[in-house]
Amino acid sequence: MAAAVILSGGVRLEPGELGFLLQEEIMGFFLPQACGQAQGTAELTIADRLLAHFFLLPEESGVSADYQTQVESDWSYEAILAREAADENYVDAATGEVIMTQEAAEQSSTSMREGETKEQTQGTVPEAAEGQQAEAQTAQAEAQMEQQAETQAAQAAQTQTAQAAQIQTALATEKVVVYPREKLNDFDYLIQNFYQVDSTTTINSSQLNADALLGKDLRLSHDASTPQILIYHTHSQEGYADSVPGDASTSVVGVGDYLTKLLTEQYGFNVIHHKGEYDVGDRDHAYSKAGPGLEAVLAENPGVEVVIDLHRDGVAESTRLVTQVNGIQMAQVMFFNGLSRTTAMGDIDYLYNPYIADNLAISFQMQLKAAEYYPGFTRRIYLKGYRYNMHYCPKTLLIEVGAQTNTVSEAMNAMVPLADLLNKVLTAQR
């Protein structure tokens, strides 16, 4: 058995701390700004501890005070928040592999916008030397703007008409597939057919039990006289292949507007669409920034029972998350759950979520309804290791609507079956 180590100042270092120290060193390399240590003999720097491990000194006395390692340090919490904010949008759920880092995605997005700007400005007339030429250009620009506004208004009217028709066309009136309960109660069958478990986390049959997941009564408890559903966006800046930079109506926020419209006008729910921006400038802390905003909205509207964080995924440029529902092309959606547990660290106490079972129940009931009524509409539920602000409300859904390779219309079309699924689950007859 390896001997314990006594450093200067009388601090005892146990041999079993090696794994923790290596973890600290690795995190220190990648997140040096978050790894500062307090001054004084009671605190050890990483260098002190590694020095002690590589130059072990025999313990002189047989009895020493126990030394408690600081597992939940501030830097590890910050690291978790950064990973939580960045990784869920750049994972290909089909393979579980990271496809695009946040930095690469931002560079790609920036490059695309810069390219578009250059193309739009190529061939423009330089500043006129004569006043008449400048006036002519101004008049021409104003006419073009008026014509563009008229065209956009006409297109919007056509889109609204088409969407109204699609509401009826894309709705399923009866089950297409039936899943026997005995199959669903088989944990292996459940995992293989309904879930994608990321390598960062683990789950077992005690959490994924079909009887327990389907046994949760998720029906709304009150009528639409007060708000029932909250839709918001941790990542409000996410757009699609043909999104117009600066036009929120063509981003995931616009998709949220359409979902709100369907839920209120088609199904009679009372819905709040919160459009706070939490990923502008500092995406790495979007979840921690969104938390207080979410708390405030819920405090003002205590009757809200369902919280939906609407996103769009990030995948390889060659990947197209498209399906057809009753002949209408639309983006696939994916339900996403955080388990507050990583494979390396186990349960993360400072990311405690008392509603994990409820979160899992609503995503599974939505997934099963989708598989029964709209086969192929959803990807498998993605399970990840962190929390993603799913601890504020039992019936919380994090939904990825397509990816950056989908068009805005494909994402909009997907809201028709999604709204129907929400209605089926939240008003289910028992």
Question: What is the secondary structure topology, with strand pairs?
Answer:
Blueprint: E1 5-6, E2 12-13, H1 18-30, H2 46-54, H3 74-87, E3 91-92, E4 97-98, H4 102-121, H5 131-169, H6 181-184, H7 187-194, E5 195-197, H8 210-215, E6 229-232, H9 252-266, E7 271-273, H10 286-300, E8 306-313, E9 322-325, E10 328-331, E11 333-338, E12 341-342, E13 346-347, H11 356-373, E14 381-384, E15 395-403, H12 408-426
Parallel strand pairs: 5-14, 6-7, 6-8, 8-15, 11-14
Antiparallel strand pairs: 1-2, 3-4, 9-10, 11-15, 12-13
Region (Disordered): 104-152
Pfam family, one: SpoIIP
Protein name: Stage II sporulation protein P
Q: Determine the structural class based on helices, strands and strand pairing.
A: alpha/beta
Briefly note the CATH topology name of the largest domain.
Answer: Aminopeptidase
- The backbone outline, from C-alpha atoms, is globular
How large, in whole angstroms, is the Cα Rg?
26 Å
> Helix count, per DSSP?
12
Intertermini distance: 61 Å
Contiguous uncertain segments of 5+ residues: 5-9, 16-22, 28-75, 89-129
Helix-strand sequence: EEHHHEEHHHHEHEHEHEEEEEEHEEH
